[in-house]
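Two quick folds needed for the group meeting slides. Do the first one here.
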Amino acid sequence: MTPQTPVNKAENAASEAQPKDTRNTGPGRLLIAVYAVFAISATARAGYQILTKFSEAPLAYLLSAFAALVYVVATVSLAKAGRTWFRVSVAAVLVELVGVLVVGALSIFDSVNFPHETVWSLFGRGYAFIPLLLPILGLVWLYRRRPVPLKA
């Protein structure tokens, strides 16, 4: 055993005093599970659409693939602990919310470019509007579980 220096003792005390990252516990696990289901389903849907019907609606199907990527990033970042992963989670969920709102509006007002539905079309109508509610719930959860500011 090596004796601890005062610096090591201070570091240990500081790490013990900080609350644990709790984004992936309790209701956070359910949120992560829902994101995982959407990541899998959006990836499968986008893959199928791109492989079989890409020429029918290329913009819509590329947006489906983008939505799948966003769901994968959100799932992974919500499950990981730490400040960096928290920031990635916030960014992914914000991109998701903007995507749902923009694609939802475009699918109503520019139906020519959206002849087939995507995950975010019509604000997620094909998925019981969960794609519209999920980022709102995600942002609320992230706000409630945000990391405490670092002391200088």
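Then this one, please, same format:
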Amino acid sequence: MNNLDKFDLAILQELQADARLTNAELAQRVGLSAAPCWRRVRALEEAGYIRGYRAEIDRHKIGLGVLAFVRLDADRSTGNLTRAMEEAIRQIPEVVACHYISGTGTFELQVVARDLDSFSQFARDVLLNLPNVKDMHTSFSLGEVKASGALPLAHLAHLARSRG
């Protein structure tokens, strides 16, 4: 993080907004020529700041109208059992995000499904049969207020100013 300057920060901001920018467009937006911009993007990728590029798909348009937040409680929280549960969760395509959480519960999952009936079937057939599951609590999204994958970068501005 200490190596970022104002150009790196600008590149990250622009690519979060539109990862389909050509290198020429990106260079123009951040105030660099094409070759140095390309080198910086590659360096940000190699350093792990940029982990990948993907299309953001509207889940409703592809028939996934239900978004559920599922808290799974583990029966026992031993290392091997928790790792087995994590690995099993990673293999389930309907689970679009999973976090190991503090407080009540062990894992918080975001699960997509076509409708409530298909979610119900999925919960009974898949989630409740995961290794080490003791209990499951589900809440459903009634509407999306904000669903951005973009991370805030303002806290890096002081580093960029000192280097730029």
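Slide caption for protein two: The mean pLDDT is 91.
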